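Here is the promised in-class demo. Please do not try to memorize the tokens; focus on the logic of going from shape to residues.
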């Protein structure tokens, strides 16, 4: 019985790999260089949150056990956020308060992006992304186009493909417009 504690859980390993692939996609240099997401702690959180929202939306459209994958993926995201806070030196007594703020921010963004993504409303999505990612009232049109394309593409994949090969996100450079967001 004790040896069961040392065995790797294949499901947890697959979720960790899926989360790593999403996190890697959220750090694609073109997002920062061409789509002008600020290369700051906040900008990286915004990029990761956007990519997580897009993946979770796709999982909602897939058959079971996609709902369990979504739950496990969300848990992995918040474990990573918790570990990141601790790595940055945030004290144990402050971490729960910060995690509550991170969760509120994440779910607020998911809610703000959901409607425009559902309706393929580029203008509304660009406005929401502009406010959250760039802290500006200027719409983030290229980033909205990227997100709409990613949302569409992810919903075309099946769960096995996503778990085996990882999610496929478009190349950010394809959506960059010179001199604008």
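The designed amino acids, position by position:
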């Amino acid at each position: 019985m004790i040896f069961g504690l040392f065995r790797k859980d294949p499901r947890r390993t697959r979720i960790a790999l899926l989360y790593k692939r999403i996190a890697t996609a959220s750090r694609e240099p073109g997002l920062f260089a061409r789509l002008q997401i600020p290369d700051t702690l906040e900008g990286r959180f915004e990029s990761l949150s956007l990519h997580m929202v897009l993946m979770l939306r796709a999982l909602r459209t897939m058959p079971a056990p996609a709902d369990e994958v979504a739950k496990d993926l969300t848990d992995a995201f918040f474990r990573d956020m918790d570990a990141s806070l601790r790595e940055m030196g945030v004290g144990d007594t402050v971490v729960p308060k910060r995690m509550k703020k991170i969760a509120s921010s994440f779910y607020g963004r998911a809610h703000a992006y959901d409607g425009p993504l559902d309706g393929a409303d580029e203008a509304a999505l660009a406005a929401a992304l502009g406010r959250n990612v760039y802290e500006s009232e200027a719409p983030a049109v290229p980033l909205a186009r990227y997100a709409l394309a990613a949302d569409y593409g992810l919903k075309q994949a099946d769960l096995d493909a996503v778990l085996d090969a990882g999610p496929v996100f478009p190349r950010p450079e394809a959506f960059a417009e010179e001199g604008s967001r």
